[in-house]
Amino acid sequence: MRQVECAVNGIGERAGNASLEELVMALRVRQDRLPYDTVIQSDALFATSQLLSQVTAEPVQANKAIVGRNAFAHEAGIHQDGVLKDTRTYEIMRPEDVGQSATSRLVLGRHSGRHAVQSRCETLGFTLSIAEIDQVYRAVISLGEHRKAIADGDLRRIIDRIRTPAAAPASPGATHVEAIGYGHGV
Prior knowledge:
This protein has helices at residues 20-29, 45-56, 77-85, 114-123, 130-144, 152-163, and strands at residues 6-7, 18-19.
């Protein structure tokens, strides 16, 4: 084989072309079965995809293999747990191999697990007790029923709400004292 006809993001006339990024990474991760090589810098694939998307005004599908924003995202609790233990469990390549950020790709939502919620809290700098993690987890699942994903800001608000005790209502027989004026006999 001497050459392959392909295009970035698979963009082409009519039905499109084979996707460059998918072909390059298939050759890289399956070298044991595909004895071919390319000089293409795979860590530039994501940036190239984004540039083409801007130039053509054609957005990259979120679930597009290799270069989509969800290519390395995990929401299901069992996947999140596996990735936290060893990313190779569900990722045949690393995000940085294609130029994507290696930051956490754990999407918090209604399918997330406790381990992922705890990991994200720790990433944000929070150390929570087991009881607090359980409360945060339940709040994430509840909020996830109404939203696709839980952002870091949402998670911070949940933690703040859990850690801030609610004001206790006044007891029925309590005396109400109200200060009026500035203490000068006014």
